[in-house]
Each structure stands twice: as C-alpha cells, then as structure tokens.
C-alpha cells in the first residue's frame, strides 16, 4: 500500500478545499466536486456534507476509487470507510479546528455526518 509523503500531507492539510472525483460504475471519473478535507496524523479524511444522500459519497462508496486534487497535489485514491469512534472523535475536532471560522451551519453537518467518514488512501 502506498502512503502519503509528508509534503503531500502538509500541502493538502493547508489547502482550503479538495476536488474529489469518485469513479462512476463504468470506470470514468465524475465531475470534480469541492469538499473539505482534514488531516489526522499521516492520514487524510473527508465527509459528506449531505450525509449518505450525497451523490459523490454514494459514488465513492460504490466504486471505492477516485481522484483528488488539492494544494497542488493530484492523486488517484481508494476510499476506506471509517467506523472507529476514536478516529471519528479526532476528525470531528479537526473539522472544528480547521473550518471553525465558518458559520456553524457549514461545520455542524460535517461533524454530524460521522457515518460518512472516508479515509483517502493514495494509489501508486
């Protein structure tokens, strides 16, 4: 399994947004969608603002593959669901820390969407 370099982690961590393109069932990428991304240690995580109803999230859970761009980094990734409560607690805190300057109506849905936490694992 490939891991993120420290440079990639730092660049994505400090970027405001991430462009995510999960693969469709026919293997082609969806149009990129801007979402928020957070870092925990050597891992990167995303959540669906619309919960499990989010179309990009449904595509990601179906294909488990996609492409991301953020902070000048472009990577193919696999999406790994996260159910660990301790990890999700840290992701909650990371979203509040990184994006807390925004209105709670943006941050609170992401904190509430713990069941949509996906770890981004680089491919190649």
From TrEMBL:
<protein>
    <submittedName>
        <fullName>DUF2255 family protein</fullName>
    </submittedName>
</protein>
<dbReference type="Pfam" id="PF10012">
    <property type="entry name" value="DUF2255"/>
</dbReference>
<dbReference type="InterPro" id="IPR016888">
    <property type="entry name" value="UCP028498"/>
</dbReference>
């Amino acid at each position: 399994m490939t891991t993120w370099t420290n440079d990639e982690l730092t660049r994505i961590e400090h970027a405001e947004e991430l462009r995510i393109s999960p693969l469709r069932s026919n293997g082609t990428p969806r149009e990129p969608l801007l979402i928020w991304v957070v870092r925990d240690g050597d891992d990167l995580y995303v959540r669906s603002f619309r919960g499990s109803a989010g179309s990009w999230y449904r595509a990601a859970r179906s294909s488990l593959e996609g492409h991301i761009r953020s902070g000048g980094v472009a990577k193919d990734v696999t999406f790994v669901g996260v159910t660990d409560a301790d990890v999700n607690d840290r992701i909650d805190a990371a979203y509040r820390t990184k994006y807390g300057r925004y209105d709670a109506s943006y941050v609170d849905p992401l904190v509430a969407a713990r069941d949509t936490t996906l770890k981004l694992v680089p491919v190649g």
